[in-house]
């Protein structure tokens, strides 16, 4: 599990300059041999640990590194943190 | 009021109850504060909301921003971040988040529950509610980020109630009142709704779907929760045997002894009940006949429209071999326009522990998560990948009722394992009968 978490964190950090919010499907591609429920467990754990956070428009949810990119009151077009 | 609202005031002039009047009423209530509450969000938030709405009508564009990072710990749904883009002008609604609360199955409330909910919301929110949202859940409109955990704690610990679903989650499942009140319920809608809500907690609160997914449970085809129009997975009660007929009661309706529609349309004089015009000719498949003495139904051609049963409830009743049909893929417009559900399983006995339903649901989820594009509803995937594919992933054999328009697509191919003997043939045998 710890290694898998590192894979996600590394991926999010590597992408953080260009993209701070990711769809769930993006993480499935990182673990082609894992079922979606297993990947969700890793992500849920990272959320619990405060490393990853949810971003929701109300209809769609995305995942991002906590504190990266658009924050609470931000939205498209705003300068990123 | 803090702001003049001439445009909103016009909305109060029509014949219908007005949301503007409701907000004004709550604004006046908060200003008077008759219960001496120590309001935890700005007391004048409702007045600011009216001001912001007036500005939106004037500018003809919204002043709400879209989404954000708010939620309660561990949950990926249930709270929707809302921020306005004129916070200096309207500080009371600078942060005005929505909370979705799971409604009780069949929407049965006790007054104690409603009082508790309103007490929490008066203190920690705007006091404005939407009973209920399109999904069927309780929507609490407008609070600030620091109040979220407080509200969540009180809801769960003092009211034993959970948040609903939002975002790329399973949305709060909804059911009609079912067997608790209705003689037409073909299965226990409330029980299956509650059970599946419990079983799929992870899907409700931790988002891992391409987009929203909705279950709805209608006890009969009257469809009081409109399952086949608005849910990705609709379970609609039906029966396999014949509609039960009490011929004496039919005659009583014809003779005027019983009022049709259980008196539902009695506010106006519609004249004498005419069984031919009001029932027989209204049957969509013309499967009924009335010879002046006896009502006959060709049940094989009945499509369960419910019209005859609703019109003469004392004479006609649903059959005894009851269960449900499963329809998939209904959705509102965004991509491809609105879609109604497509019939996948014509009849399933809906019985505890509901494993048959759960198997279908989980097979659909596996396919949709794997193949669905981001923000693609199940109905859109069904259209893109074909209904045939849905049949395949749910291990359902194709039947005639799965075909919407025969021969619309001439390029549907058999797979080798579906053909007796496969695709290989004995060429020598073939040439013995056919010249080169």
From TrEMBL, chain B:
GO CC terms: sulfite reductase complex (NADPH)
EC number assigned by the record: 1.8.99.5
Record's keyword terms, sorted: 4Fe-4S, Iron, Iron-sulfur, Metal-binding, Oxidoreductase
GO terms, molecular function: 4 iron, 4 sulfur cluster binding; dissimilatory sulfite reductase (NADH) activity; heme binding; metal ion binding; sulfite reductase (ferredoxin) activity; sulfite reductase activity
Annotated 4Fe-4S ferredoxin-type domain residues: 293-321
The UniProt record lists the keyword Transport: no
GO biological processes: sulfate assimilation
InterPro entries: 4Fe4S_Fe-S-bd, DsrA, Nit/Sulf_reduc_fer-like_dom_sf, NO2/SO3_Rdtase_4Fe4S_dom, NO2/SO3_Rdtase_4Fe4S_prot, NO2/SO3_Rdtase_4Fe4S_sf
Family annotation (Pfam families): NIR_SIR (PF01077)
Protein name: Dissimilatory-type sulfite reductase subunit alpha
Annotated organism of origin: Candidatus Desulfovibrio intestinipullorum
């Amino acid at each position: 599990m710890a290694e898998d978490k590192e894979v996600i964190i590394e991926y999010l950090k590597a992408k953080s300059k260009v993209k701070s919010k990711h769809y769930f499907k993006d993480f499935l591609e990182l673990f082609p041999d894992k079922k979606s429920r297993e990947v969700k467990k890793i992500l849920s754990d990272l959320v619990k640990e405060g490393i990853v956070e949810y971003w929701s428009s109300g209809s769609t949810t995305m995942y991002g590194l906590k504190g990266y990119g658009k924050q609470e009151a931000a939205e498209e077009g705003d300068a990123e943190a | 009021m803090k702001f003049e609202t001439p445009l909103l005031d016009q909305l109060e002039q029509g014949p219908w109850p007005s949301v503007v009047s409701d907000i004004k009423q709550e604004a006046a209530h908060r200003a008077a504060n008759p219960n001496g509450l120590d309001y935890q969000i700005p007391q004048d938030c409702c007045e600011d909301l009216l001001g912001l709405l007036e500005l939106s009508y004037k500018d003809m564009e919204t002043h709400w921003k879209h989404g954000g990072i708010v939620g309660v710990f561990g949950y990926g749904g249930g709270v929707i971040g809302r921020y306005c883009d004129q916070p200096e002008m309207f500080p009371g609604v600078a942060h005005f988040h929505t909370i979705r609360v799971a409604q009780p199955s069949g929407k049965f409330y006790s007054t104690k529950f409603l009082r508790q909910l309103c007490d929490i919301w008066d203190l920690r929110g705007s006091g404005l509610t939407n009973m209920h949202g399109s999904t069927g859940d309780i929507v609490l409109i407008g609070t600030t980020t620091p109040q979220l955990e407080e509200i969540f704690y009180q809801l769960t610990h003092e009211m034993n109630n959970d948040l609903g679903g939002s975002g790329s989650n399973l949305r709060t499942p909804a059911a009609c009142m079912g067997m608790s009140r209705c003689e037409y319920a073909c299965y226990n809608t409330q029980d299956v709704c509650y059970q599946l809500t419990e079983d799929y907690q992870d899907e409700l609160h931790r988002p891992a779907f391409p987009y929203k997914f909705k279950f709805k449970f209608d006890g009969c085809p009257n469809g009081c929760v409109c399952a086949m129009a608005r849910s990705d997975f609709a379970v609609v009660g039906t029966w396999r045997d014949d509609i039960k007929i009490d011929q004496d009661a039919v005659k009583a309706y014809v003779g005027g002894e019983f009022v049709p529609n259980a008196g539902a349309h009695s506010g106006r004089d519609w004249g004498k009940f005419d069984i031919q015009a009001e029932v027989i000719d209204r049957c969509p498949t013309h499967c009924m006949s009335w010879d002046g003495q006896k009502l006959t139904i060709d049940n094989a051609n009945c499509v369960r429209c419910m019209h005859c049963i609703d019109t003469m409830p004392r004479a006609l009743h649903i059959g005894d071999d009851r269960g449900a049909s499963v329809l998939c893929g209904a959705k509102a417009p965004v991509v491809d326009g609105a879609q109604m559900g497509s019939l996948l399983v014509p009849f399933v006995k809906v019985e505890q522990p509901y494993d048959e339903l759960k198997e279908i649901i989980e097979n659909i989820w596996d396919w949709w998560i794997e193949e669905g594009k981001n923000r693609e509803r199940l109905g859109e995937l069904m259209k893109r990948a074909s209904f045939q594919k849905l049949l395949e992933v749910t291990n359902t054999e194709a039947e005639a009722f799965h075909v919407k328009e025969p021969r619309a697509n001439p390029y549907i191919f058999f797979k080798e394992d579906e053909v007796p003997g496969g695709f290989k043939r004995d060429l020598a045998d073939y040439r013995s009968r056919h010249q080169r």
